[in-house]
Amino acid sequence: MRATLTDAMLLRYAGRFVWLELNFDAPANQAFIAGHGVTYTPSFFILDPTDEHALATQLGAMNLRELLAFLDRGESGFLANGKTPADAALAEGDALLGRGDARDAAEKYGEALRLGGRSWPERDHTLGSFTWSLMLNRQSQRCAETAAAEAPAMGRGQAFGRVVLAGLACIDQAEPSRWADAARSALEPLAAEAIALPATVRDHRFQLYQQLMSAAKTRGDSNTVTKWGELWLRELDTTHPANDDERSALDVARVDAASTMGDPERVLPALIVSERAMATNYNASLRLAQMEIDAKKYDEAIAACNRGLAHVSGPIGRTWLLQTKADALIHKNNFSAAYNVLEDALRAAKAIGVKQARDRNVEKVMKGH
């Protein structure tokens, strides 16, 4: 996504926007993160400079075309140019989502869709925002059934993959049921279609690979797991990262693919290369340690965690590294050392600024304690 932000097409926006990037885990940013209800990264906001309310909100990665439309939508909201009732409802939804109110945002997005009708130019984009708001608010059935009903008729642009992904993710949130089975049957072929579309943002394509592999694994279909895993790893191996952020994102995907396939050895060489290339990036050490544990290389995993802990600054990263180190120690039957590391992990988790992330990580550490 950062490479998209350097595209020459954005030069025409120079002087019209002030660009600000915030680290989700940095303690100094927690007031902003909490005030805007950020629970998903990446999240993008265009803020009104008078009171910092969100004029436009976008969760998840964007391609260049969608980013340009996002900027134009935010600027139109600031200038109050030519708003239809549907456009106004969309803007209200973005403002609500920008405050972390996913429930009311979803209702506003639904209102915008009703007002705009089938021919409204913002319909596909709004379907993406609608389903993602439902996903965040855990309205799983409504989200999945909306995606299954609407996605087949959507244009095959970037929003198509976003809606299909939201629907599948919402099925994962729910207990097994008839509606979930029906929605999955409708959405899985569309996910395969979205993976093959150039318009699908790479982050979403990777998550769609993961959804298809996880569903096949749940069904005990190892051949399909391997098919999608091989396609995913082939794409990862042939992608040359433009910067460290992109390299880190590729490594996250490698871990996800290899974990689902049950083949950690497959990705260890690439993860070792990445850690050497990003010696001060704790994420590189964390991903390597996770796969070394799966490969039963526990001493190597502990060493990788220690390297990562030397460079981590925020409490979320520290919590993850300490949990991973404790996991390796437990596998070595060194329970007293693991207990002490988990105590440190619990202290780090309690220092996380965002309540939802704090509660989730504290619960996870307590389970391993």
Explain what the structure shows.
With 369 residues, the protein is mainly alpha-helical. It has four domains: 1-136, no CATH class; 138-231, no CATH class; 239-306, no CATH class; 312-369. Helices cover 66% and strands 3% of the residues. It contains 17 helices and two strands. The chain has a two-stranded antiparallel ribbon with strand order 1-2. Strand 1 (43-47) and strand 2 (54-59) form a beta hairpin. Helix 14 runs antiparallel to helix 15 (315-331), helix 15 (315-331) packs antiparallel against helix 16 and helix 16 (335-350) runs antiparallel to helix 17 (355-368). The longest helix is centred in the middle third of the chain and has 18 residues, at 178-195. It starts with 29 loop residues before the first helix and ends with a helix. 44% of the residues are buried.
